[in-house]
Amino acid sequence: MVKRKELVAYTNQLLQIDRFRDYAPNGLQVEGRDEIRVLASAVTASYAALEEAAAMGADALLVHHGYFWQGEDVAVVGMKRRRLAMLLGHHINLLGYHLPLDAHGVFGNNVQLARVLGIQVQGSFGPEPGIALLGELSSPTEGAELARRIALALGREPLHVAAQDARPIRRIGWCTGAAQKYIEAAAESGLDAYLSGEASEQTFHAAREMNIHFFAAGHHATERYGVIALSEHLAEKFLLQHHSIEIANPI
Ligand SMILES: [Zn+2]
Fold this sequence. Notes:
36% of the residues lie in helices and 25% in strands.
């Protein structure tokens, strides 16, 4: 058991939330009960995830995609009212960690995805230091073969756009979620491939024209692992029960 205050203070400090300029508040987003014994985790605080958290008697739900995004309508109506009513009605604390959870050196989505895909992390690239990572595969791998490995590891078929010269892949960059915009920085860094969660129409042309393999492996699928790693750590440290909630999402 841990006091909400202590859990939030510890996690905020661990993820160094003050270092980030983010599009949503990091930390405690909705206050629930004072003491936490059961911690649930999910990628997104969707209504379906809240229902599962409530059903298992969770005192807190830790997510990567919480609420109160920059530019969103602030009125508490419709979908937002239903979600907040569910949380408040069950006194569930909602903790949201966005960029700090992508970037963390141990529990972060990017480091955790590398572990799942068997990529050795060597550093980061791109305009925001520490967000997009680069590393190496243990041996040069054909694009189609890497696509098969990704499908096996994530349980979802990735979209693969082959590099113009279809060369084998050794050095790869990646950034989970909707980070397809870093493909140009990846190509400029001389990487053989770039992997993100989502793709845009123009990503196809960038991959072809800049001669780099591109993989869109799913926004949800690439961001599953950070919340689980972080929650398992918190559960161990504070002797909590942890339940991971998986709401399937093909995007
Ligand atoms: Zn995301």
